[in-house]
Amino acid sequence: MNTASSDLLTLVLGIFGVLIFASAIGYVLQRRFSADGPNGAVDNLNARIKAWWVMVILIGVAFIAGRAGVLILFAFCSFAALREFITLINTRRADHWALALAFFVVLPIQYYLLWAEEYGIFAIFIPVYAFLLMPIISVLRGDTERFLLRIAEVQWALMICVFCASHVPALLTLTIPGYESRNVLLIAFLVIVVQLSDVLQYVWGKLFGRTKIAPNLSPSKTVEGFVGGVISATLIGASLWWITPFTPFQAGLLALIITLMGFFGGLVMSAVKRDRGVKDWGNLIEGHGGLIDRLDSVVFSAPIFFHIVRYWWSLS
Amino acid sequence: MKIMIAEFAAAAFVLFARAITAVRAIWPEHGLPSRPCVYFANHSSHGDFVLVWAVLPPRLRKQARPVAGAEYWLKSKISTFIGRDVFNAVLIEREREKRTQDPIALMTSAIDDGSSLILFPEGTRNLTDARLLPFKSGLFHLVSARPDVDLVPVWINNLNRVMPKGEIVPIPLICTVAFGDALRIMANEDKDAFLERMQSALLALAPKPLGSGE
């Protein structure tokens, strides 16, 4: 067993330990508070924990399957996220071909470019080629009603759901001296820190939350949850330095950046939901809502994390 | 052999519909009737009944038969196979002058045989901007013949955006199928009042348009 897979195994065992602990707490809460009737908060918590088991196992299987597995997993996430996003935006019949192109051409090409490790095109394919070609496809139908809004929304959907999301598996393409064949652990680091930050903000908020931080955007987010979640996720990130090419201090700093981007990403996506008049992006994940509800913080932190690591650590 | 292919094709249709639309059912407060009933839905796409069919629990799905236009489905060999063998549709002739069989008789005999019907009372696909076209009288004539049958309103949301008229590539979008509580015709209810009541029951299931704020 090489060091990458033994580290991965340690990590997976650790996560399973956390999930078993969470499931045990969920079980006790259920026995105490909803033994003889449903309790909304506890049932939602248990549904969330159950969904976490499924998500962790799915990601674990993808990691074992290697590069192809990770790419397929994130391509599927992009597909499901894009489907949730496009469902909520203003599209008209004139956009039909542009939308078909987004799902069946742009998305597969973006992930193919990762597979082929064509970084030069990967980095500009959606911001340049799709950006210019999609409105051309839409304009050919001659429908000018809300035209700017329509093309802007489709481009935003592609940037968030495909371009930004694809920067998670893009971490596999980096070449870091002394870190060869361990890149999958960078994905683990990013995903663990950002998701733990979300979970810890939720836990700190539930335990000590008093002051609402953004009442207009997300009534459940509190200052106490934010501060507690960011600090504890940063410390956990620092303590995970051994799976990264970073020193403990660097790992903590990157974890801080990741959690801050994740937090503000969550706020931005909440504002979009408010604008569209919905509470959740969808119903894909029991207890959590849609896939974007779980992915919003990852999507905002992944490209920044990718570019910081690429600029300061990677040779490619 | 033919039956096996038909069952395989049915499963493939359902899988494809689910992969594209991630369709989710919204069930009524009192559940669906377990006896044969009539599901009546809004009609804006050829995929409408596949979606209703896909979300029904397997036991109810087996007994549900879509009611569809014979002119359309008997056009070619393959569409006949899909209409008759895969979906086991009750095929009715829509053009009054050319009719050889009474559509109401076909539907009542399907109900008498223990089948449920999936019916689109607008009579044709709604390609207008109106949410619902005025109902044809078929639904009324059907319940006049079988007044004790349950009528379940079904609102299919978003499928018209997945595949608008004239397009061949479906766009993946999330669809929902909302079922209402079962209704019956009331004693002495006349045709217009009955159809009006059914239309409002169906419209009540439609979600508010997106971006209308809270």
Task: Give an overview of the whole structure.
With 316 residues, chain A is an all-alpha fold. Chain A has 3 domains: 65 residues; 107 residues; 135 residues, no CATH class. Chain A is built from 11 helices and no strands. Chain A is globular, with a radius of gyration of 20 Å. Helix content of chain B is 39%, strand content 15%. The radius of gyration of chain B is 17 Å and the shape is globular. Chain B has one domain: Glycerol-3-phosphate (1)-acyltransferase, CATH 3.40.1130. Chain B is of the alpha/beta class and 214 residues long. The model of chain B has no long low-confidence stretch (mean pLDDT 86). In chain B, helix 6 crosses helix 7. The interface between A and B is medium-sized, with 25 and 17 residues.
Beta content of chain A = under 5%
User: How many DSSP helices of chain A?
Assistant: 11
Average pLDDT figure of chain B = 86
Give the CATH class of chain B: Alpha Beta
The count of strands of chain B amounts to 7
- Tell me the CATH topology of chain B: Glycerol-3-phosphate (1)-acyltransferase
N-to-C SSE string of chain B, H for helix and E for strand: HEEHHEHHEHEHEHEH
- The value of Rg of chain A in angstroms is 20 Å
